[in-house]
Structure formats: C-alpha cells, structure tokens
Design a protein that fits this description.
11-stranded mixed beta sheet; alpha/beta; 6-stranded mixed beta sheet
C-alpha cells in the first residue's frame, strides 16, 4: 500500500524524510507496532504504552530499510532510508492505520460495541447468537472467544490490539459476515485500541468498582467508558441502562441517537421479571411475555439490553422474542450443575463486589430461606486490592457459609490475598468463614458441607481453564472440578 494512502487516514503534524533522496510516496509492505516485526519495507508505529514506549526502540531499527516510522517526536538520529511521519498521538494513529491497512472492515459490518463493568461478555455473545438466529452471518470479539462466522479464534484480552481487531474484522467481512458484536473494555477505550472503528451502535451495561489498579479512580474508569460513547457518530445509536446512576452520564456528549432500557423506570425498552427460577425466568419485554433460560436480575438487565439492541438493529420484534426464548447462557456465566443428591452448583465469572452481590441475590431470590447458600470465592493477585475486603464482606452477608480461596494469585502470596479478604469480615463472619488457599480443596469442602436443596456458588473464574500462580499458568477449570464430584 502506498504511504500516502495510509497517511490520508490519520492526522499528521509533519512528514520528514531521513534524506532528500528518498521517494516521496514509497510502497509499505507491512504495518506493525512491534519493533521485532519491523522488517524491510514496513511501517513501524511507535506507541507509548503502559509499560513500554515504542520510541525507545527507534535506535534498534536503524539500517533495517523500513519504509516509514510513525512517531510523536523526531529522534536525535534520523535513518537516511526512512520517512518519519510525526503525529499528535501514535496510539490513535495506529487504530486508523490498522483500519485502513485492512480495508476499513468495520465499515462493511454492522459493528456493535458493549461496555460496562458487568454483562459485556453475555450481551456481546448473545447479540452474536441473535444475529445467527436471524439468518445473518456474524462475528464476535469477546473475553471468552473471538468467532469469525462459526470459527472460534482464541482470545487473550477483552479487546485485542488495533491490528488484531482489524485483522479479525477483515476475516469476518471475507467470510460474508454482516454483523459483529464486540466487548469494549475500559483499557481498550483509554488506550485507543478502538480508534478508527466505525460502530453502528453501543450498549452501556452498568458501572461498579473495577480495574482501579489501572485507572486509579472510579471517575477515570467511568470516563474511559464514556469516551466510547463520546466517539460514536451521529448515524449510530447508543443504548444505556437508565437504572444505573451512570447511565445518563454516558450519553451526555454523544452524537448518537439516545435510547434507554430499564427494569424499574420508564424507558424505551422495559423488561420485567414475572417468575424467577434457578433454571430460567418468565419475563416480559415492553409488555410481551417470554420464557428465557436465564436467572437473576442481572441477567434480566442483560436480556433487556439484548432486546433493545435487537430492535435497534432492525429485526422484527416477534422474531426477536422467539429467538430470545432459545438463547442459552454463556459458558461460565451462572452455569448450573446438578448433583443426584439434590445439591446445585453454580459456576460464575463474578469477580467484582457488585457481580458477587448480583449472583448471590439471584440465588436468594429463587430459593429464599428454604435452603443454604455456600459460596467459594477469591480475588486475583496484582489487581485492585481495595475490592478484596468488599467482596468478602458482601459474600458473607448473602451466604450461609463462606469459603475464601485462591483465584489467580499471579505474583502475590495467596495467603496475603486471603488476609486482605478476611479484613472485610466482622468478628462473627470471620469466625464462621474458612480460608483454603487450594481452590480444588475449597470446592470439595463446599460440596461436603452441602445438603439436598442447597446451592454452591463458585465465583470468580467462570469460563477460565487455568490458574496463574507465580507467573505460571496451570490448567484449572471450576466446571471440571464440579463435574469430577458427580455434578452434571
């Protein structure tokens, strides 16, 4: 691709050739933000990342015969074979360059972004499933998996880097997809990983404490989410949870058409729980009843968002309601297992205080005080320590028995993480709780304590099939552990 074709897609401060003899518009053979992949004829984008500044690698690129380098400031030594493209923000530039490099694939799809603390994976995945039920080929970018039509592609981050995103979107276009649903994390928005993408719609789920190890304050975390809506074009729609105190705030500066959904307030899309059960719920959407295979108020919000997004995408309402009755929960999200003894185990990804409250409240709403709830929960290492005591406190408040255990300790001592969680318990709760660092042993203990009719919640890891200890990933899957104990 010609250099001019790429630079047309970005805001350029200056174009500085390393020497006057260079061609004004060379061919670019590859685009990369990884200096190790910068080879002859390629364009290297020097991004100032969280831990590494791409500008620091410029000296190592001298003599590699690159076509161009995208930078925010010129280096002291210019390579006479390279054209330097100076930009205000190289992270933003990378998004637009990646989009242009892959043929602007998001403009050939109806791309829907989903952001918020909880519910992103469920909503994005089920919008993808709805599209397929409506007869469309679709793609998905999510925490659990990326999917191109029907082909899964392994996912390592909630939102990949701009080159990976656009490569996946381009594969979707090539496969004949007409729609893509995408989780948009606060990290991705803040780091401009979604720059250059064209969204037809955005969904806001809710906002509670999370990722403060990165954003430092709830306000900065909130504003990162809001930036996604601020960037939506006037041709798009924005759908927000009006029951969340940040719902209206997300729409304050958006140019998109504004729509709301709610379980409690007047809204464009109104959901209502009629009859809850552990294996499903009778709900109504804008007054139309439908039986769904999901449980809990938090899932009722997710489904109301899906209903609203589906209508805004132009699908027939009757077809939408029929399809919603056929949707099934996402792996590791309130995934229910039964034991012949009558005990129920639920594996859920809940890893924030609010998510733990949502899941336990959903269980309590169904079983009341007729049976006991035993909760197994931990907290991740090298992450926001402030939420650990809150999670333990909320879990103790809504459970009959609490077992604290390891999640992904990463580089931290599991015992110190447990001590942080125990600090959130009062004397009575601390005396009743059990701390077992070994997660498999903790799950076995919960099962041994359960009587017929009881419910065991195993929270925090959900779909994850690994446990990270001292920087090493070991195979571990809560669902496998449960099945090994006789649950189906």
């Amino acid at each position: 691709m010609k250099l001019s074709r790429l630079t047309d897609a970005i805001q350029v401060t200056a174009i500085v050739p390393g020497s006057p003899a260079l061609p004004a518009d060379p061919d670019v053979t590859a685009l990369t933000a990884d200096s190790r992949q910068a080879t002859e004829g390629s364009m290297f984008v020097a991004v100032r990342g969280v831990s590494v500044d791409g500008h620091s690698f410029l000296p190592s690129l001298l003599g590699r015969h690159l076509a161009a380098v995208v930078i925010e400031s010129l280096p002291e030594e210019l390579d006479p074979e390279v054209i330097y493209v100076v930009v205000p923000d190289s992270a933003v530039a990378l998004g637009y360059l990646a989009s242009r490099w892959y043929g602007d694939p998001s403009r050939h799809l109806r791309l829907v972004g989903v952001t918020g603390t909880n519910g992103k994976t469920t909503i994005a995945t089920l919008i993808y499933e709805m599209a397929r039920m409506m007869g469309e080929k679709a793609g998905l970018l999510s925490t659990v998996v990326n999917i191109v039509d029907r082909t899964p592609v392994h996912s390592t981050h909630t939102t990949p880097d701009p080159l990976s995103i656009n490569a996946l979107l381009a594969r979707m276009v090539e496969a004949g997809c007409t729609l893509a649903a995408m989780e948009v994390s606060s990290h991705a928005a803040h780091q401009h990983r979604i720059a250059g993408l064209h969204f037809v719609g955005g969904v806001f789920t809710n906002l509670t404490r999370d990722h403060l190890d990165y954003h430092r304050t709830v306000e900065a975390y909130r504003d990162a989410k809001k930036s996604f809506f601020d960037a939506l074009p006037s041709s798009a729609w924005a759908l927000t949870n009006i029951d969340d105190r940040n719902g209206e705030f997300m729409l304050q500066n958006t140019s998109a058409a504004r729509h709301t959904y709610s379980l409690r307030s007047l809204a464009d899309f109104k959901g209502r729980i009629i009859e809850p059960r552990l294996d499903g719920t009778l709900m109504s959407f804008n007054g139309r009843e439908v039986e769904v295979l999901f449980t809990g108020r938090f899932n009722a919000y997710n489904l109301t968002a899906i209903y609203g997004a589906s209508v805004l995408l132009g699908w027939n309402v009757d077809d939408v309601l029929l399809a919603m009755s056929r949707l099934v929960p996402v792996a590791g999200r309130f995934q229910t297992f039964r034991h012949p003894s009558g005990v129920t185990a639920i594996v859920d990804y809940a890893h924030t205080p609010d998510a733990v409250v949502n899941v336990l409240s959903a269980i309590r709403e169904v079983i009341g005080s007729s049976a006991s709830v035993i909760t197994v929960v931990g907290a991740g290492g090298n992450r926001d320590k402030g939420k650990r005591p809150i999670m333990a406190s909320e879990a103790a408040r809504l459970s009959d028995r609490l077992i604290l255990t390891s999640d992904n300790p990463r580089d931290e001592d599991p015992l110190l993480i447990l001590a942080d969680m125990e600090a959130g318990l009062d004397d009575a709760a601390r005396a009743a709780a059990v701390s077992i660092p070994d997660r498999a042993q903790a799950i076995r203990m919960a099962v041994s304590l359960a009587s017929p009719g009881d419910v065991i919640l195993i929270a925090g890891k959900g779909h994850e099939d690994y446990q990270e200890i001292r920087g090493v990933r070991h195979h571990f899957d809560d669902r496998e552990q449960v099945r090994s104990l006789g649950f189906v």
